Amino acid sequence: TPVGVAPDLAAQGAALIADDVEGLSRAVKSLLDDPALRSKVSEAGARAAKNYAWTQVANEHLALYEEVARK
Question: How far is residue 43's CA from residue 17's CA, in Å, rounded to a whole number?
């Protein structure tokens, strides 16, 4: 089961399998060995995190509540 990533990052192949120790080890080693990959993953994570900022989440919930209230 993929865990630990947002769906948009998982779509880019960033998902880790919970019981795949070797896969996790390879992924960590890749990040340690490749500064460009490390930077790319870091930047993607920062971009994805903006989608989960509390103000963004609150605004999305408020919009949903307003839509439901209109029905």
Answer: 22
**DSSP track, 9-51:** HHTTT--EETT-HHHHHHHHHHHHH-HHHHHHHHHHHHHHHHT
Question: For 42-50, which contacts have Cβ atoms below 8 Å and span 24 or more sequence positions?
Answer: 44/9, 44/12, 44/14, 45/9, 48/6, 48/8, 48/9
pTM, to two decimals: 0.52
Do 23 and 17 touch, CB atoms closer than 8 A?
yes
- Dihedral of CA 38/44/50/54: which sign? negative
Instruction: Give the C-alpha separation, 57 to 41, whole Å.
Output: 23
Mean pLDDT by 10 residues, the chain (71 residues): 52 60 84 91 85 85 94 87
